[in-house]
Amino acid sequence: MNEPSEAAERRYPVLKRERSEIGPDADKPLDDWLAIEEPMEIRLGFGPAERRETRSLSITMRTPGHDFELAAGFLHTEAVIRSHDEIERIEFCGPAVAPRTASNIVRVELSADVEVRLKSLERNFYTTSSCGICGKASLDAVEVEGIPPLPRVGVTLTHSTLPQLPERLRKSQPSFERTGGIHAAALVDASGSLHAVREDVGRHNAVDKLIGYQLLQRDLPLHRFAMLVSGRASFEILQKALVAGIPMIVAVGAPSSLAVDLANRFGMTLVGFTSAHRYNVYSGVERIVER
Hints:
By secondary structure, this protein is an alpha/beta fold. The protein has two domains: 6-121, Ubiquitin-like (UB roll), CATH 3.10.20; 135-289, Cytidine Deaminase, domain 2, CATH 3.40.140. It has eight helices and 14 strands. It has helices spanning 67-77, 118-121, 135-143, 165-171, 174-179, 203-216, 235-243, 257-266; strands at 14-20, 29-35, 38-46, 53-62, 87-93, 105-110, 157-158, 183-188, 194-200, 226-229, 248-251, 269-272, 280-283, 288-289. A six-stranded mixed beta sheet has the order 9-8-10-11-12-13, sandwiched between helices. It has a four-stranded mixed beta sheet with strand order 4-3-6-5, covered by helices on one side. It has a two-stranded antiparallel ribbon with strand order 1-2. It is globular and about 60 Å long. The N and C termini lie far apart (41 Å).
């Protein structure tokens, strides 16, 4: 696969906007840093050389930056591709949206021998809480995809390490420090060190960028890492982690009921409401050890 262009890293995740602060001591306009939110279209090219097809797969609102990772991670967590070797190249297409930026359209060309199931391109692989389908159907849909089982234990974290993780993540979020309005996802090793961090206005995009980074590094599955997320733990986030082989999710916020059900069914560790003083374990307590 061709290496991602440097243009993938030339996006600006924040910008300045003028604001007026209302209060007794606020009497003049001020500058504020805001997280950028722009649409990104993922286009997929696939099929044998003599009859290549192109499909617009998804349009997501994201923070620019690491766009190739976002596209690769999305394709992997949606079970469209299984490995790095199935990608022939990733490129921007269409006109640049501004002189300093690349296009908001990312095209992923798959190898000619990759079989693409068109049904999966319709995003019917799983359902969200707004689809009106029961949680059991959602869990069954994940199970029939044939996702490889997680290791019985894999990564472990200590009781003393877990409360330190939110602050470590906060210190590794440059865009959050400026804007206060952006999510993050990080891979955490057994020592509690942050291996990689990605930010985005969409929490699911931050996860896809993180997984896409590892996929492009040919480093899947991710059994030796836990994933730390700055917000809540939803069904979608756990499903993406499961596909990537991540056995433990640590969330600063709350888990959803379906996320807990998925964690229990597939043997994942799920930790929520993680702070410097406490945390809740909803599933897989065997991966949290004394030392």
